[in-house]
Structures are given as C-alpha cells and as structure tokens.
Design a protein that fits this description.
Elements lengths: L53 E8 L4 E8 L6 E8 L18 H6 L14 H9 L8 E7 L7 E7 L8 E2 L8 E6 L5 E7 L5 E7 L6 E6 L7 E4 L4 E4 L1 E5 L5 E5 L7 E3 L5 E2 L14 E9 L2 E6 L4 E5 L5 E6 L9 E7 L5 E7 L17 E5 L7 E3 L9 E5 L1
Parallel strand pairs: 12-16
Antiparallel strand pairs: 1-2, 1-25, 2-3, 4-5, 5-6, 7-8, 8-9, 9-10, 11-12, 13-14, 14-15, 17-18, 18-19, 19-20, 21-22, 22-23, 23-24
C-alpha cells in the first residue's frame, strides 16, 4: 500500500460446525482469484449512478429526527446534482452511549463519533472510515443497512434497512429472534440482501446475510473474526470481506485490505466470504510505509498516505513507491491531510485537511467549514479547493464514479 512477493488467494478456511438457532444454508468455495467486480449489475439510471459523479453522506440530527443525507455532486463545479434522505429509526444504533448495548456499525462512524463516544473500530482516519460508510449502501444508493437495538432486551440486536425517502421509523426489520447478536450491517451491491456479523449459539462469530425479499431467513456465509472488523460486500454473486480499507482493483481480481496482525496490504480475491486473518492471508504484498490506502490509480497501482504524511503511488506488485511523494501540506504546518477518494482515471484524489484529532469536537453538530481539496496524482495540474456550504467537516466522501 518489501521485496516482490507473489500475490495469492486468501484461502478462507472451512466453516466449523454451525449451531445457530436458525439453520443456515452453507456456501461452497470455488476457484482462486475470481472476478469480484460489480460490472454485471444493471443499475437504474440516476444522478447517483452516472459517470463523473462524486457521492457524499452527512448525518444530521434534530430534536425528534435523525437522518443521513446522500448527495450526488459534479466534481468540476462542486454543485449538487441530487440528494436523497435516509431516516434513521429511533431504535437504530447510530451512536453508542451509556446504558445501551455497544454496537459495531459504520453508521456509528458516520453519526455518533465524538470525544465521549469514539469510533467502534480501532482506526478512525478517513482512509479507513470512507469505505466502511460506503458499504452501508447498495450501488445505486437506494437502501441503507442498519443495526437495530431490541427495545425490550438490552442485549439483543438485529439487522434491517431503510429506503431513501421513507417516513421516520419506516424501517424493514429482517430479524427479531430472541437472543440475537447481529452487528456490522451492510448492503449487498444490488440491495437485495443485508450482510452482517452475528454470534452463533456456541458463542463464536460468523458472517451471515438475510434477503430483503421473502422470508428473510438467516444464511450463513462464512467465518468472522469477531465483531471488531467491518464488512464489505462485492461481486456477483456477492461475497463479504471482513477487513478495513477494502478497495477492489479495476480488474476485479485483487483488493487492498487491512486487519490486525496480518502481513500485507494487497491480496488476490477469493471465492468465499470470510475474515482477513493471519491464517487466510497468504502470499500478500506489503506496501512500504503505507498507513492508509486511499484507492487504486490503475490495476497495478494504489495511492497511499505514508508514515511521513505525504501521499505516494505504490506498485502493488512489488510494494515499492512509484514516482515522487505528493505533498498536500507543509511538513511544519501542524495539520493533517487524510485521503478519501481517487478519481476513476487515477489522476486526482480528494483530501481533507484538518487539525490533529479535531474532525470531531464537543460541539458535534454545529457547522464547521471544511478544508477539502482535489489534488493531482502527477505533476502538471494545480490543486483545487472544494467549496460548497452543504459540505462540512462531518461530510464523508463515499464514491467517485
């Protein structure tokens, strides 16, 4: 994101005996390094699915209402083309606070992170947060996955989803079994399933899914590494990767990913759902000095924020830097620059500049003017500011198509 290493398949281990209260349908493994891109999905035409569009998400709260607003932007003028609102049900886990079950969900990253309630995940930089929040939505941004706390039992949590434009508390609940512990809810690419981690009857965590159609029965998808890592669902048929900073390469057969105690940043795809672990991650490529992958600039190149604070394009075959460092701010500036998205042609990327640890403040929902910039990945072009009053420091940039 050391010396050349052969890229290889993450061979996710077979499932242990599954004692869940519902009988899940098992999934079989297939060949190595399959295509996991999303090009086989036919998406409805809308401002959110057209080329040359940036999509953002912002969480807003009032005295009696909470919602996520998703906007489609023109990346040249930075004027919004369209917006959609996803109401947050009153029992949805969008913040963790004393007296309720602490839940891992990207929605908490987006809505509920502040000095008193840190991110439910260990790393909360924008390189980590942006792909997590993106996974809440289907490809067309029509549905958003949620984790729901059981109102009658503080220890239970279930998954569901909301549709854009729905009324407040008009949520589709996909499960409600007593004793359920379902977290990390995300949408499948086509919006026809919610995927999540859950605790099986024997106490171990698994990856599961529930269809948004029909009976919503639990389908077991593979082993999970607890609830501490988020999910990203890609491909057709869909498969889940449990790891951070998951970005699929343009060719659809490699991905970036990060997990504790796992060597490497880049791996071949694999044909079953599972967690990135030291056992499943074999023959990976380590991107030297990379502290956060921003995205792919080509099928063999990825953009990283480095330990020195600059950005580098990395050769994902060798793990070495390619080209000169890209400096966004002066080393003595005192602020931090974090990457968010790479343009589809790999020539530009979006950056947020802010004071260290100051993106979230005690005054969580007051307006604070952001410093967003579009930076060229190669010489010859100037950095441009991203300016619009609808953008603030709590805006998360989700996709650039």
């Amino acid at each position: 994101m050391v010396a050349p290493l052969a890229l290889a398949v993450l061979c996710v281990q077979g499932c242990s005996a599954q004692p869940a209260e519902e009988k899940p349908a098992s999934k079989s493994s297939a060949s190595a390094a399959p295509y996991l891109g999303n090009r086989d999905y036919v998406l409805p035409d809308s401002p959110f699915t057209r080329d040359d569009t940036v999509v953002t998400a912002t969480c807003g709260m009032g005295a009696r209402f909470a919602a996520v607003t998703v906007r489609a932007w023109d990346p040249e003028t930075w004027q919004p083309r369209a917006e959609r609102t996803f109401p947050i049900p009153s029992d949805a886990a969008f913040t963790n606070y004393a007296g309720v079950k602490a839940v891992n969900s990207p929605l908490v990253d987006l809505c509920g992170m502040n000095p008193d309630n840190p991110s439910p995940y260990k790393v909360a930089t924008l390189e980590y947060m942006a792909p997590r929040v993106r996974a809440l939505f289907d490809l067309a941004f029509t549905r958003m996955a949620v984790v729901l706390r059981d109102r009658g039992n503080n220890k239970d949590s279930h998954v569901g989803y909301v549709v854009s434009g729905a009324d407040l508390d008009d949520v589709v609940r996909l499960s409600g079994a007593a004793g359920a512990d379902e977290q990390n809810a995300v949408m499948s690419p086509d919006g026809r399933g919610v995927w999540f981690t859950y605790t099986a009857k024997g106490g171990g965590q698994r990856i599961g899914s529930r269809s948004t159609e029909g009976s919503h029965d639990l389908s077991d998808e593979g082993p999970a590494a607890g609830h501490g890592l988020p999910l990203t669902v890609v491909g057709k048929p869909p498969r889940a990767v449990q790891a951070d900073t998951v970005h699929l390469a343009p060719g659809g057969r490699r991905l970036t990913a990060k997990a504790p105690k796992v060597f490497g940043n880049v791996f071949d795809t694999w044909n079953s759902s599972g967690a990135l672990t030291s056992r499943s991650a074999r023959r990976a490529t380590l991107l030297s000095g990379c502290v956060g992958v921003v995205g792919w600039t080509g099928d063999d190149r990825a953009l990283c924020r480095t330990s020195t604070g600059t950005f580098r394009i990395m050769d994902t075959r060798t793990g070495r830097a390619s080209g000169a460092p890209i400096s966004v701010i002066d080393p003595h500036d005192g602020r931090v620059a974090e990457g968010m998205l790479v343009s589809p042609d790999g020539k530009r990327f979006l950056v947020a500049v802010h004071e260290p640890n100051a993106r979230r403040s005690d005054d969580t929902y007051s307006y604070r003017k952001p410093d967003f910039r579009v930076v060229p990945t190669t010489g010859g072009e100037a950095t441009t500011d991203v300016v619009n009053d609808l953008l603030d420091t709590y805006t998360v940039f989700l996709s650039w198509s």
